[in-house]
Amino acid sequence: MLDVRRLRLLHEFAARGSIAATAAALGYTPSAVSQQLTTLEAEAGVALLERSARRASLTDAGQTLAAHARVVLDAIEAAEADLAVGGEPAGSLVVGMIPTASPLFAPALAGLRRRYPGLELVVRQIESARAEAALRQREIDVAVIDLWRERAMPGLTSVRLRRDPLVLAFPAGHPGRRVDGEVLLCAPADQPSRAATDELLGAAKPAARWEFEGLHTIATLVSQGIGVAVLPESALAEVDPATVTMRPFRPARHRWIEAVVRVSARRRPAVDAVLEMLTESHRRGGDEF
């Protein structure tokens, strides 16, 4: 009989790629992880890992069992969620949230503590590019992310929260008509906001392109007169409005803010409570930021 706890270790190893990273993620020592995986190999009757002096990797059988482990873990989570339906939201729940959404949704989540004292809520900042993997690896239970383009996320389900309009942001006092000859502030090339910038301003001829991590950082630089940028309105929420001029795009463009959870956890009362609170916040705040 295969042990579920050891299957979880194998699942983590498959996701993280090393015994050291698996141990760090789960709070074990590397030797304990290695020992448990060796025991799982004995239970399975086949070699699951190919070990060398410097690293370990999954064998073909290990990859097969890791895929089954994910199915088993999802089924267990779904069963636990179904059994808990109708109960009071309780236990630990980790919410990963993009930085630009934190000021808008964190206060709503704080209300859960008053409503459900048995719920232990942890809110962490996370980038959208990392959120999907964090959900699949069960590092977080709910992700509040931005979606710049529609994309499939198998095994996950989402609730659309808000539409966040995109604007062309200039320093205050700028005529706000052209990007040509200006310093264009943008995210690195692998970020979805950069793709939107390149699409919307593809014909522009800026004097230079300066890359920065984080939409809040770019918004702050615009407010300080450093350059111009394509930004969602929410990224400008914490800068002095007197320091920035915003020009909407015609036709209008936007990104979506969505809450994403594992399908297997959707019926868990704590997850349902968080999604309900987030959607309530959306209804109170209107369709846009």
Integer tally of domains: 3
By helix and strand content, what is the structural category?
A: alpha/beta
CATH superfamily of the largest domain: Periplasmic binding protein-like II
Indicate the proportion of strand residues. Answer: 15-25%
Report on the biggest sheet. Answer: 7 strands, mixed
Shape: globular
Number of helices: 9
State the CATH topology of the largest domain. D-Maltodextrin-Binding Protein, domain 2
CATH architecture title of the largest domain: 3-Layer(aba) Sandwich
What is the mean predicted local confidence, pLDDT? Answer: 87
Cα distance spanning the termini: 52 Å
In N-to-C order, the SSE pattern is HHHEEHEHEHEEEHEHEEEH
| Uncertain residue segments | none
* Radius of gyration computed on alpha carbons: 23 Å
Number-wise, the strands total 11
CATH class of the largest domain: Alpha Beta
Question: Residue share in helices?
Answer: 40-55%
What does this entry show, briefly?
This protein is of the alpha/beta class and 289 residues long.
Layout of secondary structure:
Elements: H1 4-16, H2 19-26, H3 30-44, E1 49-51, E2 56-58, H4 60-84, E3 91-97, H5 102-115, E4 119-125, H6 128-136, E5 142-147, E6 156-171, E7 183-186, H7 192-200, E8 208-211, H8 215-223, E9 229-232, E10 244-248, E11 254-262, H9 269-285
